[in-house]
Amino acid sequence: NNLTKFKVESDIDLLQFGVLGVEDTVNDEAYLSGLTNLKLCVERALFVPILTIDEKRTTVASATALQASVSSASYSKLFKADHPFVCMIYDRSSNMPLSVRVMMDSTATSHYTSNCCK
Questions:
Q1: Contact assessment for residue 84 and residue 113, using Cβ atoms and an 8 Å cutoff
Q2: d(Cα 36, Cα 4) in Å, to the nearest integer?
Q3: How would residue 112 be classed by pLDDT, with cut points 50, 70 and 90?
Q4: CA separation (Å) from 36 to 3, 68, 70, 71, 104?
Q5: Cα(13)–Cα(19) distance, rounded to whole angstroms?
Q6: What pTM was estimated for this model as a whole?
């Protein structure tokens, strides 16, 4: 019994499909007072399901990401990761890191542009 190994991964734009039902968070009338006192709007909501199958197991994993910005913000930043660095998501209320990653790929470049809620 030989089973071909394969991996299926996709990016699903949750806002495009209206899956989240969060239309009020993607404009300058967004009200997210439970999260912050800043006027935020959600720019992107991505869901990435990953299915991996090989001879021994089937693995299903997923990741969800929300990208928000302060209302009336419009900026562009280029972050060039030409050296190892640490990426951390930190919860100030509990003084605890929620996720810590050491990034070692020196060829990665991420370009982030925000034009939300002008």
A1: no
A2: 48
A3: very low
A4: 49, 12, 10, 12, 32
A5: 9
A6: 0.43
- Residue 28 has a pLDDT of 56
State mean pLDDT over 13-34. Answer: 61
Q: Which residues contact 68 (CB under 8 A, 6 or more apart)?
A: 25, 32, 40, 41, 42, 43, 116
Q: How far is CA 27 from CA 35, 41, 55, 76, 96, in A?
A: 16, 6, 47, 19, 31
Q: Where are the domains of the chain?
A: 6-114
pLDDT over threshold 80, residue 115 = no
Reference 50, options 115, 91, 6; nearest CA is: 6
Does residue 44 or residue 109 have the better pLDDT? Answer: 44
The residues pairing with 37 across neighbouring beta strands, listed in sequence order, are none
Closest by CA position to 110, among listed 67, 48, 62 = 67
